Amino acid sequence: MPYVNIKITREGGPDGLGPSAEEKACLIAGVTDLLQDVLGKKPATTFVVIDEVDLENWGIGGLPVEEYRKAIS
Amino acid sequence: MPYVNIKITREGGPDGLGPSAEEKACLIAGVTDLLQDVLGKKPATTFVVIDEVDLENWGIGGLPVEEYRKAIS
Amino acid sequence: MPYVNIKITREGGPDGLGPSAEEKACLIAGVTDLLQDVLGKKPATTFVVIDEVDLENWGIGGLPVEEYRKAIS
Amino acid sequence: MPYVNIKITREGGPDGLGPSAEEKACLIAGVTDLLQDVLGKKPATTFVVIDEVDLENWGIGGLPVEEYRKAIS
Amino acid sequence: MPYVNIKITREGGPDGLGPSAEEKACLIAGVTDLLQDVLGKKPATTFVVIDEVDLENWGIGGLPVEEYRKAIS
Amino acid sequence: MPYVNIKITREGGPDGLGPSAEEKACLIAGVTDLLQDVLGKKPATTFVVIDEVDLENWGIGGLPVEEYRKAIS
Q1: Contact between C25 and E63 using a beta-carbon 8 Å cutoff
Q2: Are D30 and F38 spatial neighbours (Cβ–Cβ below 8 Å)?
Q3: Taking the domains of chain C in order of start, what are their residue ranges?
Q4: For the residues of C35-64, what is the DSSP string, one character each?
Q5: Which of F21, F33, F51 faces C56 most closely, judged by CB atoms?
Q6: What does the alpha-carbon distance between residue E1 and residue F58 come to, in Å, rounded to a whole number?
Q7: Is residue C19 scored above 90 in pLDDT?
Q8: Comparing A41 with C14, which gets the higher pLDDT?
Q9: Which one of A2, A19, A43, A64 is the catalytic residue?
């Protein structure tokens, strides 16, 4: 009965505001399959929760992610 | 000094957009009481954080939750 | 299909090393009942995960919890 | 390669709706520096994710935070 | 720069005490590939953290997982 | 009333098995000060929880962290 939490930045997707429902469904299906294939975990008791995080709320390299990308580009 | 995180789908409640403030207050009170009753934890240092998750961001059975409900019904 | 994570300090219980299996079963039952009573969530898809945290890994008031308790006593 | 998650209530800041982008950038910089200073962790692989939580979704003392503040004031 | 947290029960694997290092490496590779395939996320900034949870600390159906399995079998 | 969770790999420190209690106390003090300085958050209601994660349970670049370090060195 795994629980998987995927945190990603809210960007990209059809309107630039985050992944589409189809993309998120692919993540859910893919992670659930992986846990079944590798560890034999049952899909019926596998939870996947996706959190989309605003760019200004995600830091890397000591900077908000957009500034970080500018800094390293 | 417990920390409790409750993740639920954003649905139901008075307008179908998630639990009401009253329902969330009941969850906060109930969990805090439980930790005091079972383990003697002080309410003043018990935190409860409720996350409401969009239906398309919650997966079970390898499917987003709404598709899962249709599939098993 | 709620997911609840309860974080508590690893202390107390029968041998001072954390809550007993019975106490943890009470937390699991109590939280699951609460979510069913308040929001009508089904127990079969309610997950509860308890994390026990070493005292030196939990801070409050800017201090590890044992030092904090000495400081305020 | 640390991962830091900071959860705060969504309040204060320039418009009362939460911390400003500048304040969040200060948190990101400060936590990243701290991990480098204390443990030698590289900023390039330090992630910081800030979650802003609605006041009615945060409980302390068995009450939603606004009611708690009234109760203790 | 995704962050993925996988929580599983500590069981199974070569000695019954949880998945092997090889199995965990498969989870890490699989999730990282999935995020690259579906959303174009770079592996170099994809973190995967696996938490193994003692059976008595995981509840489902209002029961610790071992009791739950007995109850439904 | 912030809640901060710091996840780091279990390595380094006095015996190679993770940061010392003193180092963890520095993290707790530093994060608490930062939240007070930047956002005016009270230390008495600031929780910091440190999770130390085994190297084989932390992935980056699609590999467990030790293999990743070998691969990029």
Answers
A1: yes
A2: yes
A3: 3-72
A4: HHHHH---GGG-EEEEEEE-GGGEEETTEE
A5: F21
A6: 15
A7: yes
A8: A41
A9: A2
Regions of chain E with pLDDT less than 50: none
Among A50, A52, A55, A53, smallest CA distance to A66 is for A55
The set of residues, in sequence order, having a beta carbon less than 8 Å from that of B20 and lying 6+ positions away, is B13, B14
What is the structure's pLDDT at E1?
84
Amino acid at F28: I
Task: Name, in order, each residue with C-beta under 8 angstroms of E64's C-beta and a sequence gap of 6 or more.
Answer: C21, C24, C25, C28, E55, E56, E57, E58
Q: What is C3-72's CATH number, 3.60.10.10, 3.30.428.10, 3.90.110.10, 3.30.429.10? A: 3.30.429.10
Q: Which residue of F has its CA nearest to D36?
A: F27
Q: Is the pLDDT confidence value at D10 over 90?
A: yes
Cβ E57–C51 below 8 Å, yes or no? yes
Tell me F17's DSSP state.
Answer: B
- CB under 8 A, 24+ apart: contacts of B9-17: B9/B52, B9/B53, B9/B54, B9/B55, B9/B58, B9/B65, B9/C1, B10/B52, B10/B53, B10/B54, B10/B55, B11/B55, B12/C39, B12/C40
CB E45, CB E1: distance < 8 Å:
yes
Amino acid at B23: E
Token representation of residue D10: 């969504």
